[in-house]
């Protein structure tokens, strides 16, 4: 069943064919195929979904459940490999820690960082997200059609922070639909199967496609090898060398994990959440810092010039 959602929902299953057309036409969120999921969702019901003349109530994002106790991050989770890490510091940036202690994190506590997960078909993208979000693993392959997403709420250094995890289709025929959801990503996760060297070879193409829709200077990249449980140590170490080399080259952080056993899955998502949070707080501090610098100039300037300065600023701003 295809539903149209008026506002944000926690969980969406996006219809592969109609979604881009209808959401573009209506200028809001995509068409959803969510009714069976929401029937299983606990909690209150609020906003409306529309199916032609039919109206269905679905849970609203405005009624957020509290952050789960096992989603609280008090220390910076460590990288997987020192050779390929976004950074190798042991702790959160000291400016970030102080800002959190002093509750000077601005709007970061309300933000949702978009994470897109891309990679070849059947490399294990859906299983990876499901292992973390639902602690479940399905050994049967069910191709993702278009895109799907999960919300995960964290508390980092006492500040709420959410990740929106976009699971995209790897199958070629769904790729053009999935790629319409790449825009606005703060984190790009490129997934390959550690037992399939071709899937690592395609990582560069996945990155290129994802970067077409995003500002390369503003995204954090992760290269993730899945299905580690299926490879022998000798096989694994061979592909790891190539993967780390590629990760270094594209400036991605490298991880290897298994959704079947759960090895490294939690650590990986905690690392993503922490680094995205840290980047958000630093950007917020920089923004508020530059505002302060502006204020100082105003105060110190000749009072006759204050109006002229602010007028000049306004006209620049509108250009
Ligand atoms: N042994 C093992 N199998 C896995 C692991 N992760 C995924 N699989 C299996 O690999 C197959 C594909 O997994 P999916 O997560 O559906 O793959 P996908 O990347 O989402 O595929 P698309 O949606 O088509 O792009 C399924 O049969 C999974 O059970 C893993 O860590 N270990
Ligand atoms: Mg999938």
TrEMBL record:
InterPro entries: P-loop_NTPase, Rab, Small_GTP-bd, Small_GTPase
Catalytic activity: GTP + H2O = GDP + phosphate + H(+)
UniProt EC number: 3.6.5.2
SUPFAM superfamilies: P-loop containing nucleoside triphosphate hydrolases
GO BP field: cell projection organization; protein transport
UniProt entry keywords in alphabetical sequence: Acetylation, Cell projection, Cilium biogenesis/degradation, Cytoplasm, Cytoplasmic vesicle, Cytoskeleton, Golgi apparatus, GTP-binding, Hydrolase, Lipoprotein, Magnesium, Membrane, Metal-binding, Nucleotide-binding, Phosphoprotein, Prenylation, Protein transport, Transport
Membrane topology, as annotated: Lipid-anchor
Any one GO molecular function term: GTP binding
Statement: the UniProt record of this protein carries the keyword Membrane: yes
Keyword Membrane belongs to the record: yes
Family in the record: Belongs to the small GTPase superfamily. Rab family.
NCBIfam families reported in the protein's UniProt record: small_GTP (TIGR00231)
Protein name: Ras-related protein Rab-34
Organism: Salvelinus namaycush (Lake trout)
